[in-house]
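Replying to the earlier thread about multi-chain prediction with a worked example.

Input:
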Amino acid sequence: MSVLPWLLVGLPATAGLALLVAGRRAEREAAAVGIVVAGVVAVLAALLAATVRGTTSVPFLVVSRLGLRVDGLAALTAMTVGVIALLVLVVALGEISAGRWRFFGLMLVFVAAVMLTVLADDLVGLLAGWEVMGATSYALIAFSWTEPKAVTAGSTALLTTRAADIGLYLAAGAALAGTAGMGGSRLGLSRLSVLPSPWLHVAAAGVLVAAAGKAAQLPFSFWLSGAMRGPSPVSALLHSAAMVAMGGYLLLRLRGLLAAAGWAATTTAWLGAATAVALGAVALLQRDLKQLLAASTSAQLGYVVLAAGLTARGGAVQGGAAQFVAHAATKALLFLAAGVWLHALGTKQLSGLVGAGRRYRLVGAVFTVGAASLAGLPPLSLWASKDAVLAVARGQSLPLYVAGLAGAVLAAGYAGRMIGVVLRPLPVDAEARYDTEAAGTRRVRAVERLPLAVLALAAAALGVLELPAVAGRLGVALGQGDRVSPSWGELALSGGLAVAAVAAAAWRGNRVPSPRWALSWFGLQAAAGAVVVRPVLGLARLLARVDDRLLDPAVAGVATGTRRAARLAARLDDHGVDRAVERIVSGTRRLAEFARRPQTGQVHQYYAQAAVLLGFAVVLLLIVR
Amino acid sequence: MLLSLLVFLPVLAAVVLVLWRGAPVRLVHVVWVAVSVAEVVGFVGLWIAYARGAGRSGANPYAFDTDRAWIPGAGSGYHVGVDGLSLPLLAMTAVVFTAAAVYSRRESRDPLQFAALFLALETTCLGLFVALDLILFFVFFDLSIVGMYFVIAGWGHGATRAASALKFFLYTFVGSLALLLGFIGLYVAADPHTFDMVELTRQMPLAGHGASATLVLLAIAVGLAVKTPTFPFHTWLPPAHTDAPAAGSAVLAGVLLKMGTYGFVRITMPMLPDAWRGLAWLFVVIGVVSALWGALVALAQTNFKRMIAYTSVNHMGYILLAVGAAGLLGGTDATARSVAVAGAIVQMVSHGLITAALFLLAGVLFDRGGTYDMDRYGGLAAVAPRYAALTAAAAFASLGIPGFSGFIAEFQIFAGSLPSATVATAIAVLGILVTAGLFLIALQRMFLGLRRDGRPFADLTGGELLAIGPLMLLSLAIGVFPRLVLGVIDPAARAVVVLVSR
Amino acid sequence: MLQAFLVLSAALFCVGLYGALGQQSVVMLMMGLELMINGVIVAATAFWYFCAPAALDGQVLVLVIITAMTVEMAMGFAVVILLYRASDADMTDSVAEFKR
Amino acid sequence: MYVFGFAVLAVVATAAGVAVFVVDSMARATFALAVSFVAVGAELLLLGSGYLGVITVLMMIMEMAIMAVFMIMFMMNPAGLMPMSMVHNKRGSLAISLGAFAALALGAILVPWPDRRGKPAGDVTRALGESIMGPKMLVMIGVSAVLFATIVSALTMATSRGRYDRSPSAPMGAGD
Amino acid sequence: MNEDPLALLPEALLLVGAVLALLTGSFSPRDRQGRAGVVAALAATGSLIAAVAAAGSSRLVYEHSFAIDAATTTGRLVITAATLLVLALARDTVRGTARESEFYVLVLLASCGASLLSGASDLLLLLVGYLLASIPLYALAGWARNPGAAEAALKTYLLGALFGIVMMLGVAVLTAVGGGQTTYRALAAGLPGAAQAAVAFGVVAVLAGLLFKIGAVPAHFWVPDAVSGATVPAAAFLTTVPKIGGLLATYRFVTVLPDTLVDWRLLVAVLAAASMTLGNLAAFGQDDPKRLLAYSTVSQVGYLLMAVAVAGRTADALPALAVYLAGYSVTNLGAFAVVAALPGRTTIQAFRGAARPHPWLMAALLACLLGLVGTPPTAVFVGKLNIFTATWDGGMQWLVVLAAVNTVASLYYYLRWLGPAMLPTPRDSTDLVARSAAPVALLCGVGALVVGLSAAVVSSAGFALMR
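Result:
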């Protein structure tokens, strides 16, 4: 097979690492390198999608080669990632003015990791891409490393997703266990769905947990909230086509495994639906635009997850993929636009952005298109893709369908709020509401406009993916034979609901309350803190104390600063090595004192002792034969 | 012969240096580095030759085999040789010592003796990994303790260094005696009596002697566990590291700890297979406890070097988990177990490289700031970007991010151990989360945020970069192209699994 | 009859032992040792006479014991002189500089 | 007669032995010791060892003479005639020696000693002489070496001056 | 015939050398007494050569009263070599003193006695060897003629006399119950049928004397006090040469004993355990290096006795004993030589920082002290390894474990001395270095290492002799 898939991973990785190693010396060339490479990657991805199908692998571990597999889903995803990454990097030219070597370097490595995740054909490669993606996301979110909050947010993101990643490690073990005695690449993704019983469930659970963590599904959603501390281009890429979306993608790709495990598919579907509803509600009640978008990411990806979990009527992979792509374009657009405003106006508070769409009309226009798509307004992209998923859901379970529909209404609600806010007339005190985060530039750079326009076009037009002819072919490409199209009734229902909700929200949107539970995303982070982080830290401190007690001579030694090395040994047991050893040592010392007592210096006592001991020796010989 | 020459070249150089007392300091360092580099070249060459099948004869699994009488009365000989198990460790040893040599360019306290001591220490470490005779193994084991004692006591820092050194010495020496008792048990059980490892592996002298085999195994295991160190025996490690000089710590953690884990794979598993299988659950439990205990205690540290020291306990715990799981035969196939063992071996190499780098970096920290207390720093990334970047890379490598060797090791350990020790592995794998957390906290404390004070903090010098950079590059190379090492490790791991399953 | 001689030997030996243990003066202590040897001589001779008179090993043994007694006593006196000259002492109790 | 002789001599030997540590002057103690030895010498005669008995008596007499001289020369209790009680750990000594006696006597009586084998040679003294010049020659060579060593050792310790120190006020030894 | 006059040539040379040295000394002026030393050294060298020449045979001479075999040869070689080292070591201390030649004579006589002990196969000869090896020791201990030396001599003498008497009684009893003859050959035939109580008493009584010679519990009391009071060379001699003869004699003696009658193995094992434990524990708090080494020798005897305890059970016992003895001798002498080489440093605290001014001496001390611990690759390690394996093989695993524990404990006090010595210190030391002790120390240090490293040569030679 061709070298193309490898290039897709290797090129950005190499270029990114080169930038990172070169450091500040590459500051000037960094942006150019980044964009050119991203461009090449986008082209290559498109080329890949157009031409290549199949598997390629190199020897890696003894039980598993490192393989890349290009199928319809992977090709589509890779292309999406490539294009959006390119557009985001272009926009970033305007926003990132210092530390470009670091930004573009990390971004390229990130893209490489995403590509590896997308294409990986086995758990090693998948996990490699998966974890590097997490690590680079840490560095990207914490890009402004002098701000403790940004750094903490990065740490939270990495730790949360890594906690979920453990699932993949377990899945790998299960794969190895379930293929005992078999040859070949035992960690291949395609083998997961045919694992024998206990291991199948372990693998399914592991994959589900890992994906839920990355996709910010319940209960892991909170990391996404903090991740907004990163620069807007980072958010735009992380939350649209990469990182978060990868969780959904993985589930789509491994839907066979979920289906084979049975319960896993159902759980997945319900997880997606629940997240769509819960995080939709959270999004509706935010005050901060980026927080709103973040919550909506979770909610929208809920539909991808839902799609992955659907098994009835041949599944919903086509709808999920469409939802994935449409959401990627839409969300990238919205984040970039939010970033542009943040950059220009210095605020991301909804209250501060009132009328922003009128101040910067192009941005306002594309933002509105994006928001409308997000709202599921016909005939925009997300309307169609969501309904494709929901149609299958209805075939499987009515409650699931209802939940999905509720999520859609909520989505229309928060999208409507955004539209209402940005399209409202500029208030007189607008200037006073700006610059809440940082001093804005009050200027939108030309370089930012083109990508926004492209994305807006995509967000609007990707609905074509649901045109019957396109959708059918897409379904075939994705390996879905018989596809259930949403009925006109369903389409009308969701469209109608969306219109109504948007209208309502745009009208009353500024009166929406922001309860604490919504602002804190159900207090998930606090809960994680209380249930996991603090106990672990407490346990760590406790264990450290135990450990120190056990070995405190060094500590105590530092404190007392005794200098006389001749007394080392004495100090060793004065302060104790550890309890047991200390007792042994002090016991030995006592014994040692005792051992010197016979040596009295008095000959007659030597005589007496020797006589008695010799007597004992005779007795010993007499008694023991 | 060639192998022996490579092993003893450093100590010969040390003798020359000591005898040549008036040598200028610069020249001493040049000699030291040159010899170290020569060792690296030598062992890489040996590796390539081995991979091509050179140096082997007949069915002997060991290449470059030399077997001479030494203490014939006690059935002990000078028997050395290499295989896929020892070669990676030998190369890693040579590399770590080279890094230590390059790093120590500016050692001002008795540089000549320092160099000589390290060269001698290098011979003991190399010797241990080539030894195919238990007594030879033991000799090198003990000599390494003596050498390291002087490194810590003589060139360490802190008022407690002598106490720490003594503690290190006492602990590990006690361990070594338990080891010796176990060896004697093996020797006596063999017929004819012998300390020869190849012969003992062939004979499995205590097979079928339930209780005595278990006792012998426990004796050896205690000795090795102290050195490794695993959970209840690890308390010597943090003070020893805290007070040791940077190069000493790098060697101690990078190389000396591997002596323990290497012993498990080289001695206990092949020679006492049934006892090992009987006690495998114990090693798994100790591995899991060590991994979590080390990670959690490290999480609570504020002293950078102590923190790294505790992460060593964590990483060694994984190795124990893997070798223990390889002894649980139920429900798995040999290949899965060999994955665990291969992971353990890669982990030895990987941990050697990464931890050596981290300790050298800690040395830089102490050199600039005079303390390891992470809270005394902050925002260093602004003034020392190269240092920050390299430390961050090392930290991520240590926490097992793919791309570096640690991932290859830990992935194989977890994947390979899970089939036989499912619950234990599922618990142990939580360790990667804790290590991630602690390294992130450490990075945040030292490098990120705003600077706490305006004290100058010079970035890495070229020399330091030259010492530490190659370690990370090697880790990266193994992480991206694991076949580099797995090519020899895999067969060795399979062989171990076959031996332990007998 | 052997038993009678052995009891005598034991008596002499133990009287000597009592002296060796209880006397402070070095010379008196040596007298105790002599008495012990005395007992040994009786025992050795009795053993020879009553057990294996044909072999002369017992006789030679007695001879060696007597020699030993002589040389030990000679050495004893030499030590006493040394002690007296060097430390101005003749009691064991006063010569206990080294202990523990 | 034989038994009576043995008994008398035994009582004398033991009593004199006890007297050594009971009498209150060193001179008397020396005398008592000599008496004990003479009695033992006589017992040896009863055991058919005329030669050994005689040399025992002679040796002891010589030794006692030397001892007497010694006491006069060196003892803290000059003249050796003063009453004295220089005893320590009396109770312990008594306990140990009585215990030892009980054990030894018990053993002496209870142990089944081997039966007598063979008879003494006609002339024991001559046979002894032949033995030490014959089979036991090495022992006797060794004894001569012991005697040589004793002379050198005793002189090394006892002489106040080395061969080279002529003046009485010379330091006593190299170690001073 | 076995009355081979040349059979005891090595011992005879020592004896004749003693006489000649005395004569040479008598006819030499005070500042020329070194000649006597030369004579003594020549005699010892001659004895060494004679011993080498006599090696390889295995026979009993003088009516089975003296064995010439591997053990004897080992004893002769090690004893004469150690004697030579002591003669060299003593030069600083004795040169020019009034009793210089007497020192040499006494050393030769005691060596002769030790040599006799190592070959004695007759209880009578054992007694004679005991006397010959003991009497010069009293004089050597008191050689310095100061109060300390007097005390040393007194204590050595009094304990030696008591244990000698007990030993004589034991010889009498064993002879009686063993058939009336004193040769081991006769005893080996006669003892199995003897009364148990009598044998038990006899064994303990004879062992008592031997224990005094080797300085083992319960006859160890003289060792620390004598070493503290004696001059360093004398102390080195006291703790080395008699032990060699004594241990070989003990080995030879116990092999005569029937296994069935009394459990002498257990007794020896208990004594070994007690010696090593007591010696180690008592050494813990010592500040005087001499006294510390004295206790350490007590513990070393404990390890050596392990080989005796398994005598006959395993073929490795004797070779192990021989190897350990050789290693112990050179190592122990080396440690004492370092003490002698730095006469100004009389406490272990005074050794602090000595590595700076005296790197080579401290390197020798390092080799010797770690050697005494049993750290590879020193000679004692090889010995210890052999003894441990032999003891384990002989079925006394508990003793091996105890010995290992003791080895650990011993680290404590050796490091208490060694550790500070290696540390840098600002102390300006312009202390005296004894001229002839220092080379001996180095020689021993190197020897300890070389013997350990070339264990192949040494022990294969040893084993070739033994088997």
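Residues 105 and 414 of chain A are 35 Å apart (CA to CA).

Feel free to reuse this layout for your own posts.
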